[in-house]
Amino acid sequence: MSQIGDAGIDRVFNRTELLDQLGGDEDLVREVVLLFLEECPTQLTAIKSAIDRGDARELYVVAHTLKSTAGTMASPAVAAAARALETIGREGRLNAASDPWHILDVEANRLLVALRAMSYEDSQGSFCAH
Amino acid sequence: MRALIADDDRVTATILASVLKRWGFEVTLAYDGQAAWERFREEHPPFVVLDWMMPEIDGPELCRRIRLDPVNAHAYVILLTSRDSSADRVAGLDAGADDYVTKPFDREELRARVHVGARVARMQAELADRVVQLEQALANVKQLEGLIPICSYCKRIRSDQDSWEQMESYVTAHSSATFSHGVCPSCFDAMSAPENGKS
Predict the structure, then answer these.
(1) Which residues does A111 contact at the CB level (< 8 Å), separation at least 6?
(2) ipTM
(3) CA-nearest residue of chain A to B54?
(4) CA distance A40 to A54
(5) Which pLDDT score is estimated for A63?
(6) Quick check: B29 contacting A, CB < 8 Å?
(7) Cα A67–A26–A23 angle (5° rounding)?
(8) How many CB pairs under 8 A join A and B?
(9) Is the CB of A39 less than 8 angstroms away from the CB of B22?
(10) Contact state of A71 with B8 under an 8 Å Cβ cutoff
């Protein structure tokens, strides 16, 4: 099990909350973590591309989805950063997207690192159990 | 009971599918509005969970289409979304959703609302079956009513096909009544008087 002991780790990812939300189903937690590890990089690329192209609508739609996913995944920092970009996209203020994008990029990559580490530790734990 | 889940967020869709299966549903998943609409038309699920923002067709538009569907307009629809303003709730319910749950959803709240929806969907199915049975029974009921055109002389009745038929055959065809033939006192006297006269 992950032993990342950073005091701010719950802002990045609250595994206990996610496990509780999923009814204590460890298999489901592993499944959604792997799915998020697949989906999130694609969403980040789409958000950056939308900002670069000046596509406010696309920014709004993808940021909205990432905000929802991050909230479901008990990842408040990423959810908050995505919400900021969702608002910018909805209001068409792409000239204000640069700093919020930077924050999202940092928070999302922090989350992905934490999830990859957790998945690795989980897989090692399963291996050792045998 | 079959449930259709439509959400372009595969993480949420996976979680929803898992919890609904745990609560006894058979689940169909769709990741965009067009696929959801096609699966709805194919499978007629009585229970539907829709995300608001989806590619192709969004949740509220899907609600509107469901409410116009000739086969399954009364499916129970829950709109699931992180759009949580009062105006959004009103728009979702006005579009035809039966309930509205905000993301990230609380598992216990979702469970309670899903079970309410399942109860309503079961009641609707039972009512629909009862209506079919009543309609079938009604089709077999014969009823005599309205204005009946009858000849003032021979007492034959003009039927639906514009022919004139004997009263007995008309009444038998248009009601559950049957005839028991006898002779009334006046006719008995009239018919037996010549015989009495002879003797």
Answers:
(1) A12, A13, A40, A70, A75, A77, A78
(2) 0.80
(3) A61
(4) 21
(5) 95
(6) no
(7) 70
(8) 54
(9) no
(10) no
What are the tokens at A31? 């499944």
Which residues does residue A123 pair with via DSSP β-bridges, in sequence order?
none
For B155-191, how does the pLDDT look when each residue is reduced to its tens digit (9 = 90+)?
888 887 778 888 888 888 888 788 888 888 888 888 8
Helix (H, G, I), strand (E, B), or coil: what is residue B79?
strand
Touching A: B residues 120-179, CB under 8 Å: none
CA-based R_g, chain B, Å:
31
On whether any CB of chain A is under 8 Å from the CB of B101, the answer is no
Query: How close B20 gets to chain A, by Cα (Å)?
Result: 12
- Provide the CA B86 distance to its chain's centre, in angstroms: 32
Out of B14, B82, B107, closest to residue A31 by CB: B14
Q: How confident is the model at residue A20 (pLDDT cuts 50, 70, 90)?
A: confident
B139 falls in which pLDDT band (50, 70, 90)? confident
Q: Which of A13, A69, A77, A112 is nearest to B14 (CA)?
A: A69
Q: Is the pTM of this model over 0.80?
A: no
